[in-house]
Structure formats: structure tokens, C-alpha cells
């Protein structure tokens, strides 16, 4: 199982290689780490051992896709980026593409979707969720082959939803945002 997360705004790819009860072998950005977790106090406190070093952590889960971990007074905010919405195609006029990750899924794009025109790394959001944007205005920057490519709003409206985070590697056709 692989998962892309942000820790204090920095992207990490976490892959669980092995699990036995509360012992884990994980790969974090291609580095293998041994982890042991012990929960206490109804899930609000935990003992975390990473490669033999023990830490006592206070846990808080303020939102569904957000976890706050406080260790020795330092706060680590872990964000689980939203997944692309999976819906069944209903009409012929809807655009449909297949996501290249396994297992293959079908995703319906609507006229409000802002899609990546090329594969690359999303390096900067110039607009924020809830912000009014004009057609042709640069809303984010995608880097591909060491070139910055400005992604512009295909229509005027409000940026309702951001589906890719800064630092994410996206494929051509991936939904980056929704403008309504």
C-alpha cells in the first residue's frame, strides 16, 4: 500500500512494506524505516519508536484528512490529499479518461474540471480554494522537463476544490481543481 501525504507542507511517499501487529517496515521517499506504535489514552497519546529511537506523541484528528502529531513540543501536521472522485459515466457527452495507476478506474470529468495538459510536478498554486478567478488567469504552475508551465483557468468562476497539492507528480489528464 502506497500513500502520498504532506507533512508540514512537504510531500512524502509512504509505502508499507511489512506489518506485524504494531510493528511496521515502511518506505518513506525510498528510505526504509522500522516503526513500532503503541496507543494509549484512548488514541490521544502514542509511543512511537522509529529505528530504535522512542518518542511520546500527542495525537489530534481535527479533520477527516488531517492528523496533528505533537512530539517534544514540535507540531507535525499530516495531510492526506483528497482522492480523485470516482463516479460512473452516465451520459455520452461526459468526458471519460482512465487513470494510469493500478487498478485502472474510470473517472468522469465535468465541464468544471481543470485538468493537467501534460505530466509534471505541481510546483505552485497561484490561486486558493474559494478564490474568484477569471478565464485565462494563471492558477498554478506545472514543471515538466525543467520548464515551468502556467496552467490557466478555462473559465471564470470560483475555485471550489483543489485536488492536487504542491509537490505532487501528476499525469496528463489528472484533475487539478474544480471551478464553478
Describe this structure in words.
- The chain has two domains: 78 residues, Glycoprotein, Type 4 Pilin, CATH 3.30.700.30; 85 residues, RNA polymerase II/Efflux pump adaptor protein, barrel-sandwich hybrid domain (OB fold (Dihydrolipoamide Acetyltransferase, E2P), Beta Barrel).
- The chain is 0% helix and 59% strand.
- The strands form four sheets. The protein has an eight-stranded antiparallel beta barrel.
- Strand 6 and strand 7 form a beta hairpin.
- About 15% of the residues have low confidence.
Short description:
0% of the residues lie in helices and 59% in strands.
Please write the CATH class name of the largest domain. Mainly Beta
Strand content: over 45%
Question: What is the fold-level CATH name, i.e. the topology of the largest domain?
Answer: OB fold (Dihydrolipoamide Acetyltransferase, E2P)
State the secondary-structure class: mainly beta
What coarse outline follows from CA principal-axis ratios?
A: elongated
- Counted up, domains total 2
Terminal CA distance reads 34 Å
CATH architecture of the largest domain: Beta Barrel
Amino acid at each position: 500500500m502506497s500513500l502520498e501525504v504532506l507533512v508540514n507542507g512537504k510531500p512524502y511517499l509512504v509505502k508499507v512494506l511489512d506489518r506485524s501487529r504494531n510493528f511496521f517496515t515502511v518506505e518513506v521517499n525510498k528510505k526504509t524505516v522500522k516503526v513500532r506504535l503503541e496507543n494509549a489514552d484512548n488514541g490521544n497519546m502514542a509511543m512511537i519508536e522509529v529505528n530504535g529511537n522512542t518518542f511520546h506523541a500527542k495525537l489530534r484528528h481535527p479533520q477527516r484528512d488531517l492528523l496533528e502529531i505533537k512530539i517534544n513540543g514540535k507540531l507535525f501536521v499530516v495531510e492526506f490529499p483528497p482522492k480523485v472522485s470516482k463516479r460512473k459515466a452516465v451520459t455520452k457527452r461526459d468526458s471519460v479518461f482512465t487513470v494510469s495507476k493500478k487498478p485502472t478506474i474510470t473517472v468522469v470529468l465535468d465541464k468544471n474540471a481543470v485538468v493537467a495538459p501534460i505530466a509534471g510536478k505541481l510546483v505552485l498554486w497561484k490561486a486558493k480554494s474559494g478564490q474568484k478567478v477569471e478565464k485565462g488567469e494563471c492558477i498554478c504552475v506545472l514543471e515538466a522537463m525543467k520548464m515551468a508551465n502556467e496552467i490557466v483557468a478555462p473559465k471564470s468562476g470560483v475555485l471550489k476544490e483543489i485536488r492536487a497539492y504542491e509537490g505532487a507528480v501528476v499525469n496528463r489528464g489528472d484533475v487539478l481543481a474544480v471551478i464553478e
